[in-house]
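Hi again,

Forgot to attach this to my earlier email, sorry! This is the prediction with alanine bound. I've pasted everything inline since the attachment limit keeps bouncing my files.
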Amino acid sequence: MANHLFRKKPIAHFEADMKKSELNRVLSRWGLTSLGIGAIIGGGIFTLTGIAAHEFAGPALAISFVIAGIGCTFASLCYAEFASVLPVEGSAYAYSYGTIGELFAWFIGWNLILEYMMGATTVAVSWSGYFDKLMHLFGINIPMWLSNDPITAAQKAAEMGIEVPSFAFNLPAFLITWVVTAILVKGIKEAANTNNIIVFVKVLVVIFVIITGAFFINKANWTPFIPEHIIDAKGLGHFGWSGVITAATIVFFAYIGFDAVSTQAGEAINPKKDVPFAIIASLLICTLLYILVSLVLTGMVKYDQLDMKAPVASAFSAVGLTWAVYIITIAAVAGLTSVMLVMMLGQTRIFLGMAKDGLLPKNLFASIHPKFKTPYKSTILVGLVVSIVASVTPIDKVSEMCSMGTLLAFAMICGAVWILRVKEPNLERPYKAPFLPVVATLGMGFNVFLMTQVRPDTWKAFLIWSTIGVIVYFLYSRKHSNLHEHKN
Ligand code: ALA
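Structure tokens for the complex follow:
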């Protein structure tokens, strides 16, 4: 039994899978980088910067971004090495299967659902919020019961002193999920083209924020750069170095997505070289943009006056550039669409990898459309789940679950890359992570440390989710695994 749990997928099987892939190989080096940026820049920079600076870091938000960025860089170097050795669509799941063993791999795959599917669901709800705001700017007001889930609608009605609606449904979140699903079913080329356009718009707007905002920086707003540490009435610490670390755990969400590039290995033209490049390039580009945006924001508006819901747009109205609010809100709506696109794309490719190995039903998760060459059934299933959960659940707190699944995957990958170096030192590695034991150890340490900072309720939910995953493994996956049939 223990042997079964630690059985590993031989590297030769990965190579055979790569040759058999039915997916369309159309993604170039920059197409992959664009997918990475598409997944990274989203709600994190447009919303979380407000609370992180206002409550915890002050102008030192830039340092929080540096800290979170360094932690992600360790993980990205390890992902890049794996992607060069095993360029298959399963990402962290597949890498663990080749190194640590089946049960761990399953466990990672199960938790990647938190990152990708839960991530897409969270982003669908944020998308709806920004869309609502955009419509409002153009004088259209979507009824509250049609743009919120029932619980949030009831809370808002109570706050506004109006009658609680008998029915509520987040229609924008539902509809955008189906638009994204349709693009993903249609083809990887369509998905990549849509993503490229959006990435162009959002990077342009982020650069606009940096350059235009720079003219409105008042250096006095940066003093003190790290405000003095205080403890509030509830015993919660703010500011000081501990505040900077707390802010780093919050803005970590803004970096999630660079690893999604590794799920596209099956559709890359030259995966062994281009996927590692795109993982690292997309992360570095976004880290630089994030640091500059945070410096500009805290320079434009004193940190304690930064808006906590829409900090970027509000900073521009605060300095009198109200027209910029339109541009920023449009970019946020577009930006969040591409995060959903890449997250849902990544989820279906991870399911595909797991189904090919027999750990999930093949007829549902590995069935490729004869014309579109996409895993259409699984894409539709993911769309169904995301659209329903996003339209009826108050999901705002669930972003922490998304971070939790991601942190675990990052920590495991840092460990796994090291294990593979020791066990298979002679394997061809087109990309090698530098300073390996150090980078892997720091990567594991950083990601596990961030996991310890997550709220106890999130830990409880995470443990329940993991237990369900282990039960599914023993009831289904273990018996259906390809390795089980062949008794390897
Ligand atoms: N990094 C993505 C975002 O900030 C998940 O929306």
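The longest helix spans residues 102-137. The chain has one domain: 2-487.

That should be everything now.

G.
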